[in-house]
Amino acid sequence: MGIIHHSATKTLGILTGGGDCPGLNAAIRGVCRAAHDRYGMTILGIANGYRGLVEGDVRLLKPEDFSGILTRGGTILGTSREKLFKPGGFEDHDFSFHSEDKVQAIKEHYQQFNLDCLVVLGGNGTTTTGYRLSQEGLHVIGLPKTIDNDLVGTDRTFGFHSALSIGTEAIDRLHSTAQSHNRVMVIELMGHKAGWLALYAGLAGGGDVILIPEIPYDIHAIGRHLIKRAQSGKTFSIVVVAEGALSCEEGNMEKKDRKKYREKTVKTSIGYRVAQEIELETGMETRATVLGYVQRGGIPSASDRVLATTLGTAAAELLARGEYGKMAALHGTEIRPVDLSVPAGKVKSVPLDYYMLDSAAAVGTCLGR
Ligand code: F6P
């Protein structure tokens, strides 16, 4: 081991929260190897996201724990969708904690384990909770993770590129079966609040229609587009739908009304509803595929490995400098810290003037209008 440099952080706790994705273990490796090898920090792994910190489910991570995990999918620490600052217990446990009890438990464990900082790898929920904990006096550093790529303050999140490759390959595969059966094939990709994944994969896979939450769709416009394609001799079409896509009618509803309406009309997934709507609208034989959790599985792409590693080592530098309350983020081709307040409580939606929307339209893609 080389020279051990001075560090403001002696002991850190690291956790992964929210949906898992390829690249989480690469990021854990980046943080831990730099923190341990360059700064001699003690690293405590926190199990299952914030739940582990509430329960005190923490273990010392040794070099062999964060070696050989660069290409492993998922997270060696486990994860959860713990909602600390919202009333209600754990999603899959019947804890009777109230949020203030959980926060108090976290503060006690933070002291008990003698932590100088929490490193939280997560998306909107995890990062916002990290920010709220920093407001409660804990030192927190965030790393931007989600296949949705909908975190404000960073140009990209790790996990997104891997999911993009998975989604694009699925669309490529659907082309051959759509062509063989002269069908309309609908594929639903993840992205509850923002349509980045559907937009990028739709463009990469040559989707004929791309539906994202930011642009409520008009089924009549989609029908006209598909019929025009058929009349021009195209024997099949590919429709890419984000799971948060919604119709114009839904777009005009209040949130609670929309939730009730979708509970009635979306029996399983929006992809199936759109397929049914298309078949009714056009009379064309239509099938649906919901790609689901496949998009979050498997090994990280090379791009995600590089992004996750460089974000991780940048977090170790922030730890060493004692620069807390920040998220390591990608800006262009550089890794720079942003204040945790920047992503907290926000969602990065696809801007309606985003250049890729015009590019998709220019190659003849229908965006639902
Ligand atoms: O946040 C990432 C994500 O994959 C979303 O795209 C998706 O809607 C959600 O997680 C699924 O959540 P869960 O894993 O809790 O079912």
What does this structure look like?
This protein has 369 residues and is of the alpha/beta class. It folds into 2 domains: 189 residues, Rossmann fold (3-Layer(aba) Sandwich); 135 residues, Rossmann fold, CATH 3.40.50.460. Helices cover 40% and strands 15% of the residues. The protein is built from 12 helices and 11 strands. The strands form 2 sheets. Strands 3-2-1-4-5-10-11 form a 7-stranded mixed sheet, with helices on both faces. The protein has a 4-stranded parallel sheet with strand order 7-8-6-9, sandwiched between helices. Strand 10 and strand 11 form a beta hairpin. Helix 1 packs parallel to helix 11 and helix 7 packs across helix 10. The longest helix is centred in the middle third of the chain and has 22 residues. The protein starts with 10 loop residues before the first strand and ends in a 7-residue tail after the last helix. About 2% of the residues have low confidence. It binds 6-O-phosphono-beta-D-fructofuranose. The site of 6-O-phosphono-beta-D-fructofuranose (F6P) has 12 residues, from loops.
